[in-house]
Amino acid sequence: MSSDIEPNDDMILEVRNLSVSFSRGGKQMKAVDDVSFTVAAGETLGLVGESGSGKTTIGRAILRLLPDANTKAEGDVRYKKTYLNTLSNADMRHMRDRLQMIFQDPLSSFNPRRNVEDIVAEGLVIQGRPASERKSRVEAALSAVGFDPASVAGRRPHQFSGGQCQRIAIARSLAVEPELIVCDEPVASLDVSVQAQVINLLQDIRESRNLALIFISHDLAVVKNVSDRVAVLYMGRIVEIGTGPQIYERPAHPYTRTLLEAVPVVDATHKIEPDGKRTVMPSRNRPEGGCAFRSRCPRASEVCAQNVPTLQPAPRGQMVACHHPHDEPAPGMAA
Ligand SMILES: Nc1ncnc2c1ncn2[C@@H]1O[C@H](COP(=O)(O)OP(=O)(O)OP(=O)(O)O)[C@@H](O)[C@H]1O
After folding, report:
1. What are the boundaries of the region Disordered (predicted)?
2. For residue 271, is pLDDT > 80?
3. Structural domains in the chain plus CATH codes
4. How many Å lie between the centroid of ligand 1 and the Cα of residue 208?
């Protein structure tokens, strides 16, 4: 059986055994723990998990955008034949033409004194492209995200809505013609109607350019329609990874089911189970040994406290890290 973490011919990105820890007050805190996955050309991988599960850290680690001072990253990140983790800072800067990242709050990444044309041209200036080529590439990128270049190029970022700013950020990424974009919660701060527009835009661009996307969200529903495969993260580890139908129709991990049922979280330390019981959530410190989800898991048994579950093939073909995976369809799904 082919595994979701095994490379294939179309694969352009391979993340293998990635771990990231931050030092805080003299202590090491592991934000990402032994994560492996691949992304193929033109594929969208959804990366889902609740706040603090390590999604942004994975995205930043791929592009080497983590702060050096308090960060320790281990493992390999391979883009085609190049191990990004071994590159000099200068070579990595060049590599960012191929791999880009967009963020939840694009406005904060724009220089407010610059106009849209200069913002979209930023990567092209770093590449040393001549002015005439910059102009035509900026126009093409702005058109690709649905703007009339002549009417927006001279305006400043604060004159645009949140959705429009995200489209400018997407145009800035597209201008350097990347092959992969990490989209970190790109619609989380937008109105629902605008969310759909931005998601549709990303889909269209992906299809027309055979772009690969890593689409980060805390919400499984948001990534459902955009992802070919979905990886579910819990406390820095992938607990389940598979295709859309595997994850949404037959989720095998109890945590994936919790996310799908959208159980309301009361506060940071308690949540309400479907039967109304309040469950204490584990602290951000990973429990020693065993499965990190066990204190929230209705299926937990003794073995869950003893052994860390590793990703194994589930009957429906996805990979799941659980000692007691589900095999029945999700509630409301046909068998
Ligand atoms: N630069 C940093 N220094 C110290 N700790 C950090 C740093 N960046 C992230 N962390 C910690 O690492 C853990 C994972 O954070 P991360 O932002 O990757 O999670 P996330 O899943 O993207 O969450 P969110 O959806 O809230 O952004 C968190 O506990 C966070 O506080």
Report:
1. 315-335
2. no
3. 11-233 (3.40.50.300)
4. 33
Residue type present at position 55: K
Q: Report the mean per-residue pLDDT for the chain.
A: 88
The dihedral built from the CA positions of residue 296, 299, 303 and 304, taken in this order, carries a sign that is negative
Q: What is the pLDDT of residue 331?
A: 74
| Spatial distance between the Cα atoms of 230 and 139, rounded to a whole number of angstroms | 34
Q: How far apart are CA 19 and CA 31, in angstroms?
A: 8
Residues enclosing ligand 1, CB less than 6 A? 22, 24, 31, 49, 51-57, 67, 70, 218, 284
**Residue 295: beta bridge partners?**
none
- Ligand 1 closest atom vs CA 66: 1
Query: In the structure, what pLDDT confidence band is assigned to residue 267 with cuts at 50, 70 and 90?
Result: very low
* Structure confidence at residue 9 (pLDDT): 65
Give every CB contact of residue 142 below 8 A, 6+ residues apart in sequence.
Answer: 116, 120, 148, 149, 152, 153, 168, 171
Q: How far is the CA of 134 from the centre of ligand 1 (A)?
A: 35
Place of tokens 């145009």: 171
- Going from the Cα of 29 to the center of ligand 1, the distance in angstroms, rounded, reads 10
3-class SS at 274? coil
For residue 280, name the pLDDT band (cuts at 50, 70, 90).
very low
Could you read off the pLDDT of 189-212 as tens digits, one per residue? 888 889 999 999 999 999 999 999
Q: How far apart are CA 57 and CA 18, in angstroms?
A: 10
Assign residue 328 a region: left if phi > 0, alpha if psi is -120 to 50, beta otherwise?
A: beta
Q: Which atom of ligand 1 is nearest to the CA of 20?
A: 12
